[in-house]
Amino acid sequence: MAGKTKKVPKKAKRRLILFGPIAIFIIGYSIFTLVTTSINLYELSKEENILTEKLTNLKADAKSLKTEINKLQDKEYIARYARENYLYTKNGEYVIKISDDGTKVTKVKANKTPDYMIYGCIGIIIFIILFIIIRHFKI
């Protein structure tokens, strides 16, 4: 029976030739659409995770900012905040700055006039005195 082949009717061949490429196209298009949709879904899922994390961080920031706003209504908190962050002091107080690594300690007397201002004023006074002397004696 090895020599016998099954004969396919002409109508079946015609249907196969007509609908075969259409079926292959539909199957290929479905696979392509499935793959691209899966890739888009994966990318959107990653983006959703990132945005969810950002939203959580922003909510935490908003909560801490609201807390900070409430704290800034208190005058004692404002005074302490200015002392800690801007080295603002009352008369007679000392500011001790410790670096992050804890090795260097600096003492600053409160309300002390910076040296460059003192030297600048002395220089201006000397300049004015010299200007007066030169004008007066016409040297």
In short:
This protein has helices at 10-71, 75-86, 115-137, and strands at residues 94-98, 105-109. It is mainly alpha-helical and 139 residues long.
Based on the model shown, name its key terms.
about 140 residues, mainly alpha, two-stranded antiparallel ribbon, elongated
Structural class: mainly alpha
Q: Give the helix proportion (percent range).
A: 55-70%
> How much is the radius of gyration in Å?
43 Å
Q: In percent, how much strand structure appears in the residues?
A: 5-15%
Query: Span from first to last CA?
Result: 138 Å
Elements, N to C (H/E): HHEEH
Main sheet characteristics: 2 strands, antiparallel
Overall, the morphology is elongated
Low-confidence stretches: none
Total count of helical runs of at least 4 residues: 3
The mean pLDDT is: 82
Strand order of the largest sheet: 1-2
Number of strands: 2
Structure characterization notes:
This protein has 139 residues and is mainly alpha-helical. It has a domain at 9-46. 70% of the residues lie in helices and 7% in strands. The protein has three helices and two strands; from the N terminus they run H-H-E-E-H. The protein has helices at residues 10-71, 75-86, 115-137, and strands at residues 94-98, 105-109. A two-stranded antiparallel ribbon has the order 1-2. Strand 1 and strand 2 (105-109) form a beta hairpin. The longest helix is centred in the first third of the chain and has 62 residues, at 10-71. 0% of the residues are buried.
